[in-house]
Amino acid sequence: MKGNFEFRTRKSNRSLWVIECIDPNCSWRLRASKIVPESTKFVIRKYVGVHCCSLLNRNANHRQATYVVIGEQVAPQYVGVEKGPGPKGVQTFARTKLGAQISYYKAWRGRKHAHTLIRGSPEQSFHILPSYFHVLEKLNPGTVTRIEVDGESRFKYLFLAFGVAIRGFRYMRKVVGIDGTFLKGQYRGVLLVATAQDGNGQCYPLAWGIVDSENEDAWTWFLTQLKEVIGDTDELALISDRAPSIKKAISIVFEKAHHGACAWHVAQNIKNKFKCADIMGSYWSAVNAYRCEDFAGYMTEISHRYPRVAEYLENEVGFEKWSRCHYPGLRYNITTTNMVESLNSMLVNARDFPYVALLDVIQEKMSKWWNDRRIVAMAITAPLTPSRESEFRPRFAQSNGRHTLQLNPVTYHVKGGELEGVVDIFNKTCTCKEFDIDKLPCVHAIAAAHHAQVSVYSLVSPYYTKEYYVLAYGETIYPVGSQSQWDVPNEVATRVVLPREVKERKRGRPKTSRFPSVGEFRKRKNRCGKCGAYGHYKKKCNSQTGSTEGNQPTDVPV
């Protein structure tokens, strides 16, 4: 193929394969047959490796450069990576490594075939899903998996929560963010995520689900499974966007937990609905206000400038949904669903994988996180996690010089600075409300602790301590390994899970990017007309000569 010589098959059957050059006058030929009749291996019996045909018979558009051959050759470049080369990269690979000029469409099919070889087909993924979950539960005790099918055994939903994460949730603040992101594979669907946040401010994934779409039935099913693993208490806070399906499902499933709205999504709705981006400073100040008095001041400013916005925030959204000081439960300093969006961004290149391959990526990511964070946690010398320690130290410095007056054995009046505070070191409260909401001592509480000769670290919530951080990541998440090593009971292996029915795909290139949500804008990078690179204009190009491949970019950044 590299020499651009084409061949044709002279004879092919189960025991013999004979090929020869397409020029009948050329002596090049190869003959192979089975080693023994019952074997599946062939041995070359005769090979004439010299071409004596005209060079005019060479063809870069090689007839044997099928998408299957291209896919088999390029497949190693997709092992251990989430993205790998795109169709343009496959074209370059075929040209430089195989000497073949192939079309973009053939490169796209070759890339798709390589994905199938490495990650399996979507249909096979549904077939092995029960066995995959069985092995995952066996290797990771306490793991909870669910597969829901319809009356025809077609896939509807799946749920996965690793036992390690379930047990580690006891060391997390009881604030869970939930959201969904669309999948781009052949059978589409939506990936649902529920995640907490550890004491160091990092994502702590609790549960994953795949459903057909973000509708009320799907969310109700997912949240019902989630409730079984994390419970339903008055301490629990669920944070999400204001999608009606999520809101309805939470009200059905969780009776005691409190539901809060993502402040960022509320802000995007305000900008889109009222066209008043200049009010965002006052809005975010109101979101983060600890005291109702401060909150009222910011809302007064908003109502004077945009009365309709103030009415929307109070009546349609509700102060208790987005405001820190009015929230009926305890959401600490978590006002948005950024922790969920981070997980969605992490999987951006794996969302077109077959379901089992996608779950493998999730398991691999979580295994790495647990190991890396365990190493970091064990190396901590301070009493608190690194992020909380860096937040705590400036407060400690600011507490110096404050005048403290003891009112009773547990109550202290702290003066100095812009705001005074009355601290109760027994109930761990302060009139500034920072101590009450964040559960991290404010400057007043630190000053009171000094006066009372009490360790300031004894006032910190255990969720921020090194001890809880170590315990949260003390266990290991294990992979399922190669399918050939699985030990699966017959009743599990024979369970039928068929692919869901999907609508017939429209003509043209499949869409892989979603429509921007409300208030979301995507800025496309500039492309240089001289060198073809992105990020600058032709006038500012430093390239001396234009690239020959400038009209064929390998990828278009967004």
Your description of this structure?
This protein is of the alpha+beta class and 558 residues long. Helices cover 37% and strands 16% of the residues. A seven-stranded mixed β-sheet has the order 5-6-9-8-7-10-11, with helices on both faces. A four-stranded antiparallel β-sheet has the order 1-2-3-4, with no helix packed on it. Strands 12-13-14-15 form a four-stranded antiparallel β-sheet. The longest helix has 25 residues, at 355-379. It is elongated, with a radius of gyration of 31 Å. 32% of the residues are buried. The model is unreliable at 545-558 (pLDDT under 50).
Secondary structure layout:
Layout: E1 7-12, E2 16-21, E3 29-34, E4 42-48, H1 67-74, H2 87-98, H3 104-119, H4 122-139, E5 144-149, E6 155-161, H5 163-168, E7 175-182, E8 190-197, E9 203-211, H6 216-230, E10 237-240, H7 244-253, E11 258-261, H8 263-274, H9 280-288, H10 292-305, H11 307-317, H12 319-322, H13 338-346, H14 355-379, H15 386-398, E12 403-408, E13 411-415, E14 421-424, E15 429-430, H16 434-438, H17 443-452, H18 466-472, H19 490-493
Parallel strand pairs: 7-10, 10-11
Antiparallel strand pairs: 1-2, 2-3, 3-4, 5-6, 6-9, 7-8, 8-9, 12-13, 13-14, 14-15
Helix pairs in contact: 1-3, 2-3, 6-7, 9-10, 10-11, 14-18
